[in-house]
Amino acid sequence: QLQLVASGGGLVQTGGSLRLSCAASGRTFSFYPMGWFRQVPGKEREFVAAISRSGGDEYYADSVKGRFTISRDNAKNTLYLQMNSLKPDDTAVYYCAAGGVVSVRQTDYAYWGQGTQVTVSS
Question: Is the pLDDT of residue 27 over 90?
Fold first, then answer.
């Protein structure tokens, strides 16, 4: 079993930055491609970013490309999402996930964290 705990969310002003973390335990973290998704009340969960097992390949949604950076530290069993130039539209609950392939699809991820709230004030 792989357990994921997301943290680092909070309230920031437009243009500010946050760094989200996702701590993994229970299995070999480096085996899993990882992803970040986000969800706003009343809307479906959407893809944000994904990263390969080694961290050599990164993928981003067009809405966050150039502003967000996904990374991982396999020695620390931790996934990160650096969020810069934040906008009110970035306000959402952010979820980390682990899967068998690098994917933008929720169904390709078997393990999910509880999520952390990010609020960007205008």
Answer: no
**Using an 8 Å Cβ cutoff, are 120 and 15 in contact?**
no
- What gap in Å lies between CA 49 and CA 81, rounded to an integer? 8
Contact (Cβ atoms closer than 8 angstroms) between residue 94 and residue 38 = yes
Q: Which two tokens stand for residue 72?
A: 């991982």
Instruction: Kindly state the DSSP code that residue 106 receives in the 8-state scheme.
Output: G
Residue 59 near residue 83, CB atoms below 8 Å: no
Q: What's the token pair of residue 82?
A: 């650096």
- Report the distance separating Cα 44 and Cα 17, nearest Å: 24
Q: 48-100 pLDDT, tens per residue?
A: 999 999 999 999 999 999 999 999 999 999 999 999 999 999 999 999 999 99
Which residue do the tokens 């699809």 mark? 105
Query: Are residues 38 and 106 in contact, defined by beta-carbon separation less than 8 angstroms?
Result: no
